[in-house]
């Protein structure tokens, strides 16, 4: 039986719809439950099995147009559609759902083959010239226009580029780990340069435009909190002001962000006098963006909420240094009966598990 890409496309559309509905439902359920561990979020086993079949293909001509290899071509297309479905999970998912989904992808055997394949396809692993993406919109890919039999040479690199873009958008920490651990120096350098040229400008522009949208500005900005954007330096500066007291957070994105981490700095001022560099305010938002794949909107929301809650007298968790939990957005409620310090439940659970004890992280008495 000759494969038909129309069936593959229809299957993808159907599964895409199911996945979007599923992640929205899980996001709502997680918001309503106090213990996120009660809801186990995983990818479908069949989908994981499909994406694990990613094959390294050095030369497309070895696959196509030879009619005997059309089956392999369809298998490759189906495999990449599987990766599209994996990343579809992130489109409308809440931060909690995304965090659990990302943990499922941290096994190196799952993602390493994808990135190796992507950069092979885009020509970064070979001596010939890398694929020129200058005239293509990497943020979009129209499945309907992809035909294995007629546009394989063009469609496959564009689909691979789109998958890399979506990986940088949704799971940059996983891409960063693969890149930092890449043992091929020339490939690592090529990926760095290629990302800076074609992908980072799009990612950075999207982040800045998101912060300038009316919806986000209306949620973040008020009489106390304001945001300034310096496009020339790819920098976002958030200011929290009460009378003469000012607290600032600066987020600077490098030219190859998010392949390289964003840089964070904080400053506290009283009038014209600088008071301190607020590490407690910097560390949580830095963790959210650089380690937990959060976007700048999520980071600024966390920064604002942490400050507001501290003004209300709520202390940060001594483990993660954030008032709002980085895992489930809860407040520190688990109090040590001895030292009276309060911790996030999720942070305390991680501490108990890593230390193999139930002692308080600060006073070391039994909790």
* Overall structural domain count: 3
Mean pLDDT figure: 85
Question: What is the 3D shape?
Answer: globular
Which series of helices and strands comes N to C? HHHHHHHHHEEEEEHHEEH
Strand count, sense and barrel status of the largest sheet are: 5 strands, antiparallel
Lateral strand order in the biggest sheet? 1-2-3-4-5
Low-pLDDT ranges: 55-68
Radius of gyration: 23 Å
The assigned structural class equals alpha+beta
- Distance between the terminal alpha carbons, to the nearest Å? 65 Å
Total number of helices: 12
How much of the polypeptide forms β-strand, as a percent range?
Answer: 5-15%
Number of strands: 7
Helix content: 40-55%
Written overview of the protein:
By secondary structure, this protein is an alpha+beta fold. The chain has three domains: 5-182, no CATH class; 215-327, Roll (Ubiquitin Conjugating Enzyme); 333-367. Helices cover 50% and strands 10% of the residues. The protein contains twelve helices and seven strands. It has a five-stranded antiparallel sheet, covered by helices on one side. It has a two-stranded antiparallel ribbon with strand order 6-7. Helix 1 runs parallel beside helix 3, helix 2 packs across helix 3 (70-88) and helix 6 packs across helix 7 (172-180). The longest helix is centred in the first third of the chain and has 28 residues, at 5-32.
């Amino acid at each position: 039986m000759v494969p038909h890409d129309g069936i593959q496309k229809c299957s993808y559309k159907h599964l895409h719809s199911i996945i979007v509905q599923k992640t929205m439902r899980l996001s709502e359920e997680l918001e309503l439950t106090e213990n996120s561990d009660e809801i186990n979020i995983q990818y479908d086993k069949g989908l994981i099995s499909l994406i694990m079949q990613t094959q390294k293909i050095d030369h497309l001509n070895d696959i196509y147009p030879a009619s005997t290899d059309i089956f392999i071509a369809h298998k490759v297309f189906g495999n990449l559609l599987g990766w599209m479905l994996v990343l579809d999970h992130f489109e409308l998912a809440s931060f909690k759902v995304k965090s659990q989904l990302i943990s499922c992808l941290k096994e190196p055997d799952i993602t390493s083959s994808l990135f190796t394949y992507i950069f092979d396809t885009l020509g970064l692993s070979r001596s010939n010239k890398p694929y020129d993406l200058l005239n293509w919109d990497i943020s979009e890919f129209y499945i309907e226009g992809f035909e294995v039999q007629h546009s394989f040479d063009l469609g496959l690199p564009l689909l691979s580029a789109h998958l890399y873009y979506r990986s940088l958008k949704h799971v940059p920490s996983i891409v960063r780990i693969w890149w930092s651990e890449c043992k091929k120096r020339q490939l690592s350098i090529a990926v760095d340069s290629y990302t800076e040229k074609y992908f980072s400008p799009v990612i950075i522009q999207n982040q800045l435009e998101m912060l300038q949208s009316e919806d986000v500005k209306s949620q973040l900005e008020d009489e106390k909190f304001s945001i300034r954007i310096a496009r020339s330096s790819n920098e976002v500066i958030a200011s929290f002001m009460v009378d003469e007291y000012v607290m600032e957070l600066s987020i600077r994105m490098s030219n190859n962000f998010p392949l390289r981490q964003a840089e964070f700095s904080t400053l506290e001022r009283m009038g014209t006098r600088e008071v301190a560099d607020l590490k407690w305010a910097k560390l949580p938002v830095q963790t959210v963006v650089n380690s937990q794949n959060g976007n700048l909107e999520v980071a600024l929301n966390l920064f604002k909420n942490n400050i507001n809650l501290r003004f209300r007298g709520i202390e940060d968790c001594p483990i993660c240094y954030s008032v709002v939990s980085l895992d489930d957005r809860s407040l520190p409620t688990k109090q040590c009966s001895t030292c009276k310090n309060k911790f996030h439940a999720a942070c305390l659970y991680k501490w108990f598990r890593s230390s193999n004890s139930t002692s308080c992280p600060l006073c070391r008495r039994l909790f």
